[in-house]
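Sat 14:20. Reprocessing the chain from the morning session after the first attempt stalled halfway. Input below, unchanged.
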Amino acid sequence: MKRKKCNLYSGIGGQAVLEGVMMKNGERYAVAVRKPDGEIEVEIENYQGFLHGKKLKDIPFIRGVFNFIDSLRLGTKCLNFSASFYEEKEEKEEDADKPVCSAKGPGKGEKMLMLFSTVLAIALALGLFIALPYYLTSLFEEYILNDSLMVILEGAIRIAIFVVYILAITLMKDIRRLYMYHGAEHKCINCIEQGKPLTVSNVMRSSRMHRRCGTSFMFFVLFVSIILFFFIRVDHMGYRLLLRILLIPIIAGISYELIRLAGRTDNFVVKILSAPGMLLQRLTTKEPRQDMVEVAIKSVEAVFDWKEFLKENFDYQDEDLT
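Finished this time. Tokens:
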């Protein structure tokens, strides 16, 4: 068996959920969750998104905005599904056998909850990462008269708030476990893309950092916002804040193209741009346990034929994969 390439793009991506992992390949996704009784539940479904069947999904910079919204919606749906198993555990003994909420066919109430959760998350993000840095920077207007320095200061404060936020939520036990499943998700993808059979031992030896991670995407958002706010300015304070909000879709579109490029090339410049995001992943991923890796592997195998991928791209034979 002779390998052709390393770090080959596989097309799969994912997200950690409560006691589990979601993996997505094209329009098909799977959520694998370790239930309270120790069994692994796997739910497989299709998610078509806003741009299904539309030409807009292939237009650079525009597609990123809708992909970001789709990620929020699907992520919320999968988190609700994983949480349903543990909500069931907390119910009364006589209700223990009641079926858990399925990821399939959400009802009107669940859809409204997903919409509310998404809107609330966006509102909190705007306040924490747009309004708050802008307000804190405005306190220095009397001391810093250079507009360019003010923009750089605002960007630095925004990055600092992001890092402090990550560190703060890490103190929560559930978040630490979520970060371990996040590490398991990355390790599975890295294992496959480096041309190794998807076994627990191979996954455990793989890196928990990946350039297509949402953490890296968030850093690109912060980085791109500094550049755009540096060159696009208005004098009125209220208009400046409004401008920052209105530029969010553009920032998301550019950041999506950067993270997309980072996942498909080993260009030296791209590696440099990806380095800060990879460093931040040391905070948002933790080394998983073997039982967590088992859950992540179940999620991958539900939507992705990794054996066929290795045979097509790394010259594996059937006997190498048994």
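Strands lie at 12-17, 20-25, 28-34, 40-46.
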